[in-house]
Amino acid sequence: MPKLNIVILAAGKGTRMHSSKPKVLHPIAGKPILRHMLATARALQPSKIIVIYGFGGETVPETIGESDIVWVKQEQQLGTGHAMQQALPHLEDDARTLILVGDVPLLEVSSCVALFKEPAPLALLTVNMPNPAGYGRIVRVQNAVQAIVEHKDANEAQRTIKEINTGIMAADNRWLSQWLQRLDNNNAQQEYYLTDIVALAVADGQYVSAVQCNDEWQVAGVNSKQDLATLERVYQHRQAARLLAQGVTLADPARLDVRGELTVGRDVEIDIGCIFEGKVSLADNVRIGPYCVIRNASIGAGTALAAYTHIDDASLAEECRIGPFARLRPGTQLADHAHVGNFVELKNAQVDSGSKINHLSYVGDATVGKKVNIGAGTITCNYDGVNKWRTVIEDNVFIGSDTQLIAPVTVKAGATLAAGTTLTQDAPADKLTMSRGRQFTLDNWQRPEKVKK
Ligand code: UD1
Ligand code: MG
Fold it and tell me: Is the pTM of this model over 0.85?
């Protein structure tokens, strides 16, 4: 196998996006289109990846920021052939180049491999389209590819051709460099067309192969927000299909969004409206209720999240019960059988096994031991306005409702804090500590009456 160079053409403006953001930076599944293309490119293990950028200037390389890429600026967008000419000085003589357009986020590695392996100095990825308007047509004579004619340059007969150029091709560099140098712009759009290399190859007596792709979505380009939305749904549909094939139960495959890598064990159930971002792993028998948002998290076997739970950068062990309406923020770690209930916010809190924080609490920068019960409305006051401090709650502590723990502070093992305590010093082990005054009753007190004005 020859060496592989990959060139991604991404200098175009994308006029129909009606956006000041370059087209290739618009997201599919939360990730810029160009990043999807780069992930596919990398999977092919090329010796070089060259990206031609232009519209939007440095925002493209700055946003993508992958340092091993060769970024080449096309100052003026004079056509796809002109774009490829910019790559010429970077191509390796003994390599074959895979040319990708920058706006086909669903392109798969297998299609690229097929093109790369095709034993022809020039191979094109083509697709049959029921409505080919706007695309370059594959012109064949006695089945042999002769040329690509752009829609605007095509005659009536050529416009009936349904086989179109996807814009993706592979060529041996020693030929490619010659053909690119011979391009001109004598055509309807006065652009340097990359597609003209097909006729040049044929003129040189070289065989041009067309590899047909039978999946139109793989080669569908993003030209408008409508296309972006359509491809987003196709992408998500494919994620859902993959999960179903692995045995996940999805309440509705059409109401699921995976914007990253979701890995799953056996018998996982996911209700409607859930969003998974970054790296998320769900172990066996995990149940996710409706409308949960889960980012960068690992969730242990048998754990159940009730509706509207938000998790960001947290790890949950086995058999935990979370939500509804719980928020687990970065640094949260829950051991087995932890319970976190409604309107509870945890941040950088490590909660040991069997502990419960079931209602309306904020627990931040805290270490919570085993079998602790934290009553409703408990707050760790972790911030003094300048610094953050930790709260330590040891094993078997019972914290009454509406308690404030003024950090840094430690509640020793087995301690009980009475409801309403404002704890400013460590609470001793196995004792009841309270900070409020004793209860008293005023015998002669009467409710105030409304004063007439
Ligand atoms: C191109 C093909 C057409 C094919 C279609 C598939 C040519 C002449 N035509 O047409 O046969 O059916 O794609 O979608 O190649 N780009 C640059 N610099 C430029 C111009 C374009 O980098 O000066 C990039 C764009 O960012 C884009 C890609 O090249 O990623 C294709 O350009 P586009 O303008 O979309 O070409 P089409 O007219 O659609
Ligand atoms: Mg296009």
Answer: yes
